[in-house]
Write a structure and sequence with these properties.
Structural class: mainly alpha
Oligomer: single chain
Order of helices and strands: HHHHHHHHHH
Radius of gyration: 27 Å
Number of helices: 10
Distance between the termini: 82 Å
CATH architecture of the largest domain: Up-down Bundle
Bound molecules: protoporphyrin IX containing FE
Length: 259
């Protein structure tokens, strides 16, 4: 006797699995939440692919198309990208260090010394932060030189060069404010030099010095100010300027072509 099949009913386990997969796909991607984040649907045309990339804050860093000359590593040596990577490593290791360091002139030195002996991986954490900071300063200079030698500072990229200069100063300030935090002899004498430099600035000398160091002498007010600048104000500013820097690369028509 012939068995009559019910229409729409799966005939075997493969069909059953297919139906389950389709339902899961539908649940995941065809709903209000998904659509509120990704507006352009499945990107199967050049236009929708471009839309997905242009409307996503992370994907827009990598354009859908680039000039063939930019595929060559020797065009940039990824020096800007490496500088950014150093910034990320510094942020992660810096947050870890914040668990152990208290910005007090009484305890700062011991806190750092304790990292070497009492804290598991403390020395590694500190040295990662230190060496990455040195690397970032070197890399930002090398990146600037690359930009200069490829003529990428010229119009239409002159504004991004200026954004870069602010990033250079922010990197140097981050480095200087961090140098002070261990409150050891190196730090105290470095800040004494910085104190002198700030004081000899024309017009704003004394007032600038007072605001920056929280008084006429180097002590607790200076340490807490430099700490706040180092862990909050400067990294935040740098992150904002980096976002502007990356966004401008796209706005200025992608990276410069080789000369
Ligand atoms: C924290 C510091 C900085 C970061 C993280 C950074 C990051 C980047 C990245 C990722 C690029 C894409 C190309 C590449 O990887 O080399 C780039 C391009 C560029 N950067 Fe920077 N940069 C920094 C500082 C600077 C400085 C100091 C200058 C110049 C004073 C500068 C000027 C430029 C310019 C003009 C471009 C476009 C280059 C081109 O079109 O070929 N940047 N930057």
């Amino acid at each position: 006797m012939a068995v009559t099949e019910e229409p729409g009913k799966p005939r075997n386990w493969q069909e059953r699995l297919q139906i389950l997969q389709d339902r899961l796909y539908d649940r995941l991607f065809h709903n209000f939440v998904w659509r509120s984040i990704f507006r352009s649907g499945y990107p199967n045309t050049p236009r929708s692919q471009m839309l997905v990339v242009a409307t996503n804050v992370f994907l827009h860093l990598h354009p859908t198309r680039i000039h063939r000359t930019h595929v060559k590593i020797t065009h940039t040596y990824c020096l800007g990208g490496l500088t950014f990577f150093m910034f990320i490593v510094l942020t992660v290791t810096g947050v870890l260090l914040m668990f152990y360091y208290v910005p007090s002139t009484e305890t700062a030195y011991q806190d750092i010394a304790a990292l070497h002996t009492n804290v598991k991986f403390g020395l590694l954490m500190r040295n990662l932060h230190r060496w990455t900071a040195h690397a970032m300063v070197i890399l930002v200079f090398l990146h600037m030189m690359r930009v200069f030698y490829t003529g990428a500072y010229k119009p239409p990229r002159e504004f991004n060069w200026v954004v870069g200069v602010t990033l250079l100063f922010l990197t140097l300030f981050l480095s200087f404010t961090g140098y002070l935090l261990p409150w050891d002899q190196l730090a105290i004498w470095a800040i004494t030099v910085g104190h002198g430099i700030a004081g000899s600035a024309p017009y704003l000398g004394d007032e600038g010095q007072f605001v920056l160091f929280g008084g006429f002498e180097i002590g607790q007010p200076a340490l807490i100010r430099f700490y706040t600048l180092h862990v909050l104000a400067l990294p935040l500013l740098a992150a904002i300027m980096m976002a502007v820097h990356f966004w401008r690369i796209r706005r200025d028509g992608g990276m410069a072509r080789p000369l």
